[in-house]
């Protein structure tokens, strides 16, 4: 953990030093909602808060989104589907959607984290259609490995969060991901 490295260097923790470290902890743990949150993570955050850093300020800065983000979110939500007997949730975005709304690809990055909470699903996939390739962002829970699916599609990542870039048109890339997702669900018995 970066906090441990800074401490090992003998640097005194100030709010200025603590703020980016706490920001990293918050984002890496999904604001303490992900499985990588444990007592050591919470204790590290508590130590950093004791420097006077404002978690409210960090949360507000991270939550702030441009107006185009909300319009894009509505467009993306309109593409949501629940394949694999409702165990998976998918959505997509393409360049035309971004251009229409004056949004950017950066505005898309967090959207998979919103759809991942759909009731009854264990796997979320956001397809980003670049035209000549498709970038896939995967999130999983309940023992399902997003990493296994991403690796099978030429990507990588972690068990609960992974991704891949697939050099295929959208329909073919989607079919490949769904086939690999079906195999993963079968592997875990879902």
3D structure, described in words:
- By secondary structure, the chain is of the alpha+beta class.
- It folds into two domains: 2-63, no CATH class; 67-188, Diaminopimelate Epimerase, Chain A, domain 1 (Roll).
- The chain is 47% helix and 15% strand.
- It contains nine helices and five strands.
- It has helices at residues 2-8, 15-28, 39-49, 55-63, 67-77, 95-101, 111-115, 146-152, 170-188; strands at residues 88-94, 123-129, 134-140, 156-157, 161-166.
- A five-stranded mixed β-sheet has the order 1-2-3-5-4.
- A hairpin with a 4-residue loop joins strand 2 and strand 3.
- Helix 2 (15-28) runs antiparallel to helix 3 (39-49) and helix 8 (146-152) crosses helix 9.
- It is globular.
- The model has no long low-confidence stretch (mean pLDDT 92).
- Give the end-to-end Cα distance, rounded to a whole number of Å: 34 Å
CATH architecture of the largest domain: Roll
**How many domains is the backbone divided into?**
2
CATH topology of the largest domain: Diaminopimelate Epimerase, Chain A, domain 1
Order of helices and strands: HHHHHEHHEEHEEH
Query: Which structural class do you get from the secondary structure elements?
Result: alpha+beta
Q: Which blocks of ≥5 consecutive residues have pLDDT under 50?
A: none
| Mean pLDDT over the residues | 92
Taking the sheet with the most strands, its summary is: 5 strands, mixed
Query: Order of strands in the sheet with the most strands?
Result: 1-2-3-5-4
The gross shape turns out to be: globular
Please identify the oligomeric state: single chain
Using the coordinates above, name the CATH class of the largest domain. Alpha Beta
- Rounded radius of gyration (Å): 19 Å
């Amino acid at each position: 953990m970066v906090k441990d490295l800074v401490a090992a260097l003998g640097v005194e923790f100030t709010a200025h030093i603590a703020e980016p470290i706490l920001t990293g902890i918050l984002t890496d743990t999904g604001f303490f909602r992900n499985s990588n949150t444990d007592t050591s993570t919470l204790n590290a955050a508590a130590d950093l808060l004791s420097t006077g850093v404002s978690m409210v300020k960090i949360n507000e800065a991270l939550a702030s989104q441009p107006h185009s983000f909300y319009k894009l979110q509505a467009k993306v939500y309109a593409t949501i589907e629940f394949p694999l007997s409702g165990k998976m949730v998918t959505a997509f975005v393409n360049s035309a959607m971004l251009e229409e709304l004056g949004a950017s690809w950066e505005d898309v990055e967090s959207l998979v984290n919103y759809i991942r909470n759909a009731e009854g699903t264990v796997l979320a996939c956001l397809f980003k259609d670049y035209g000549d390739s498709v970038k896939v962002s995967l999130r999983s829970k309940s023992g399902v490995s997003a990493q296994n699916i991403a690796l099978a599609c030429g990507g990588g990542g972690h068990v609960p969060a992974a991704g891949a870039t697939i050099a295929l048109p959208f329909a073919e890339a989607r079919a490949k991901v769904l086939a690999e997702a079906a195999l993963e669900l079968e592997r875990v018995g879902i």
